[in-house]
Amino acid sequence: MPEALEKWPVKVMAKMLPRHMEIIEIINDGWTKWLTAYLPGTAADKEAKVKAMSIVHPNQWNADEMLVNMAYLAVVGGAHVNGVAAIHSEIVKDEIFNDFYKIFPSKFQNKTNGVTPRRWLAWCNPELAALLTETLGSDAWINNAGMLAKLRQFAKDATFQKKWQDVKMARKKKLAAVIKERTGEDVNLNAMFDIHIKRIHEYKRQYLNLLSIIWRYKQLKKMSPEERKKATPRVCIIGGKAASAYDMAKRIIRLTTAVGEKINHDPETNEYLRLYFLSDYNVSLAETIIPAAEVSQHISTAGTEASGTSNMKFQMNGCLILGTWDGANIEIAEETGVEEVFVFGVRAEEIHKLRQERKNFKTEPRWNEIMKDIEGGMFGDAEYFKPMVDSVNNMDVGNDWFLVANDFTEYLAAQEEVDKVYKDQAEWTRRSIMYTAGSGKFSSDRTIREYAEDIWDVIPVRPPAV
Length: 466
Description:
The chain has 21 helices and 11 strands. It is of the alpha/beta class. Strands 8-7-6-9-10-11 form a 6-stranded parallel beta sheet, sandwiched between helices. It has a 3-stranded antiparallel beta sheet with strand order 1-3-2. A two-stranded parallel sheet has the order 4-5. Strand 2 (56-59) and strand 3 (62-69) form a beta hairpin. Helix 10 packs parallel to helix 12, helix 10 (206-222) crosses helix 19 and helix 17 (365-375) runs antiparallel to helix 18 (382-393). The two termini are 47 Å apart.
């Protein structure tokens, strides 16, 4: 994402950190001289390439302002450069730093992120941890997450599945108690707990999730009481923090609360659908949410999520994933089984072309209906929500940069598949067990070991016994 590739004004750096700026200029002078000597081609070709790869360069929007490209400084000065998921590392090499990669191919590596099973399984989900220890014969899995693969042999065992389901229900009750404490409302414990917790950002597409919840609500409203009984009930939870000056993120939060206010208080349907925005999201709250989750959403536009780590935390706790072919979702699917993951959406290699063609993309009737509902005030605050509608639906104003409309149809189809599988609790539980069984690769122990061996060149040493 552009905001992660920081560019600092030279004037500000020179004023606030004058010695640092001097050192950066020395580095850049040496770098550009070396580059001029190294590059083939005519003098004009060399000059253009050196300008493009210079650490200090003009602001493309204001030629009078010079910027320090902090990412370029890191690549030039660093011994190694790595992405944090396989797809991210390929994007780093093929797109973001392709010119540098061509010169220094051996600098570039992949180090897929990981999370610690000690916090995100043993600590936050003691019920599941106890079951794992009982089943595997010891708690050695806490420091050797690869042992979790042994769970695969129990995935279809009815007795083990019942124990697994009991653990999940115990954790759902704890999350329901938090919802009750915060809202005063009881939720249906037999409903699917559908979780979307991460930073509030357009690329993470909480907006897309909201559109599907609105459509689900509209369909429930059309059903007879008998038909509703056949629907898969859901308790949807969205949580996360937004940057203080990020206007669109705040509008997304407001739409979330507005949709929740309407559907949670509709007596015809609120037994089958709820939506809660859990404010003040933090690690402590995540430790309650993640063990209770049954499906979690990781639906960023393909190619925009470097890796993600919440997907790994959910996976460890046996939560099924609904996601795009992006970040570590891909590797989780490979470890768990691609057929076990609910995958939808365009691929990263299609994004550039689809953005160019978005203005002429024909949206489908369900999309158009929902846009009219929001713009027409179905959830109040029509004027406040209009920029949200325009950003994805009015190409004279917005550009739907994150291709919400393009993925909408496949996303609804994936949601229908989630509903279908959830009705078969034996199959759902089998998949849940397979997720935890496939999570060993995503222990931070593996990640740190790879950094130590391939980048830091350090050898682990055990502390002396006390």
